[in-house]
Amino acid sequence: MSDMTLSLDVSRLGFGEQKAQEQERNLVIIGAGPAGLTAGLYAGRAQLEPLLLVGQAFGGQAATTSEMENYPGFPEGIGGMALAEQMSNQATRFGAEIMYEEVVSVDLKQYPFVVRTYGPVFRAKSLIICTGTSSRKLGVAGEERYIGRGVSFCATCDGFFYKDKTVVVVGGGDSAIDEGLYLTRFAREVIVVHRRDALRANALLQKRAFAEPKMRFVWNSVVTEIVGDDNVTGVRVRDVNTGEETVIDADGVFEYVGLVPNTKLFEGQLELNEQGYIATDRRQRTSMPGVYAAGDVQDPWYRQVVVAAGAGAAAAIEAERWLAEKAFEEAEQAQQAG
Ligand code: NAP
Fold first, then answer.
1. Could you state, in order of their start, the residue ranges of all structural domains in the chain?
2. Is 174 a catalytic residue?
3. CA 125 – ligand 1 centroid, Å
4. Which residue owns the Cα nearest ligand 1 atom 7?
5. 6 pLDDT exceeds 70?
6. Integer Cα distance of 1 and 248 in angstroms
7. Does the annotation count 158 as an active-site position?
8. Whole-angstrom distance between the N-terminal and C-terminal Cα of the chain?
9. Taking residues 312-318, what's their average pLDDT?
């Protein structure tokens, strides 16, 4: 890098204009998975001109699902990303605005609430949090080193690279089995490593998995290390009953060991439940009036697209009512004062 690059005059980069970018909004929706997009649709139709802030994950976890067979209205199934795109088109058609800005902080002590991104700052009269969940990592040796070089959390994104190769899938839940089955389209062999001797996945997925000749199961085993050279070459597993360690040769490892809620922005500001999810009541209300949460970030129980979409709709209806009541009260107070 030359010295010229380093001697840039930062005063000319426009930081002084940041203040001018502050915008007041009726409703800001953080996150654009099924919950956020549906909230956007309902709030748009309620004439709230909602703003949807999308970080890096348009469509949320659902968009990484290869084929969704249980979203009503699509008897032949629909891809997760295709569904997200349709939801997005529907929301914008009714006036929702989508901005690709990552939220870096939220201040709920001020009102209107302050939502900061790397770009504009928003002052929101109400908020719907739909930040979803992220994949849980195994936390074993070699994992960080090989992310993107054989370690993956998304079969839909990376499955294609494993044509005629051997892959390990870690976990025994719906995601592991669903995505493992998807990987059999490409891979020569899909080896499921699970820590128990029974799957958590639903009965239909289990039936399909046990009937799939390309799928093999390694029971009662935990991954202790991802091994490789430049890329992954296998996983070291330990039998939880015998303690014996072996290495399973594989070209890729897909981790599906559960999810963690994306709540960092709200720690210390909103009540979280014992599992770390945002606590809401049956009307999607959080511990802060005017702030709602919908979708996986407040749902450790169902985590279904249809449930998230329903919660997003409910949150938008609640936000609209709350804003209308607040406006009415303020108008009444102004009248009394005047
Ligand atoms: P999940 O249901 O929490 O399953 C996680 C799996 O990983 C479990 O089998 C668990 O083992 C295992 N696990 C957890 N921590 C581990 C560790 N440190 N080492 C090894 N194994 C570990 O997560 P999910 O499969 O991602 O599903 C999340 C939610 O989405 C669920 O509610 C699911 O129903 C839903 N989902 C539904 C569909 C569908 O309807 N087709 C598809 C995908 C996801 P144990 O079984 O021993 O606990």
1. 2-134+259-337, 143-255
2. no
3. 37
4. 257
5. no
6. 44
7. yes
8. 64
9. 98
